[in-house]
Amino acid sequence: MVVPTYNYAAVHVSGQVTVHDDVRWVRGLVSRLTGKFEKQREVPWKMGDAPASYIDERLSHIVGLEIRISHLAGKWKLNQNRSEADRRSVIAGLNTGNADEKAVAQLMVRQPNSRK
């Protein structure tokens, strides 16, 4: 008999957290993030493309967090303790799911089976 189990990959971060609710700091961060993630698009969006009042209102709802990292720990459970047939079956099932499930399937493909 078996029960459902869940595969996952996680990163745990420890460190000193600084909370930034200064609109100027948040605006700078959002601007940098926008530039980074929009530059790959054919027509990158810029904060200046929206009305200033709209951007100001949206920024007032964002609190920035800055973490001075002292420790990182990664962990995953990707059926590495199961047979290759079980792993292939789980990968096939995950590949029929949503984007997150497909991402886990790809992690499983790249993670060697430690049960040999």
What would a concise description of this structure say?
With 116 residues, the protein is of the alpha+beta class. Helices cover 41% and strands 23% of the residues.
Structural overview:
Helix content is 41%, strand content 23%. A two-stranded antiparallel sheet has the order 1-2. The longest helix is centred in the N-terminal third of the chain and has 16 residues. The mean pLDDT is 91. It is α+β, with helices and mostly antiparallel strands and 116 residues long. The two termini are 22 Å apart. The chain has 4 helices and 2 strands; from the N terminus they run E-H-H-E-H-H.
Low-confidence stretches: none
Largest sheet: 2 strands, antiparallel
**Percent of residues in β-strands:** 15-25%
Name the helicity range.
40-55%
- The end-to-end distance, rounded to whole angstroms, is 22 Å
Mean pLDDT score:
91
Helix and strand content put the structural class at: alpha+beta
Give the CA-based shape.
elongated
How many H/I helices?
4
List keywords for this structure.
single chain; 116 residues; alpha+beta; two-stranded antiparallel ribbon; elongated
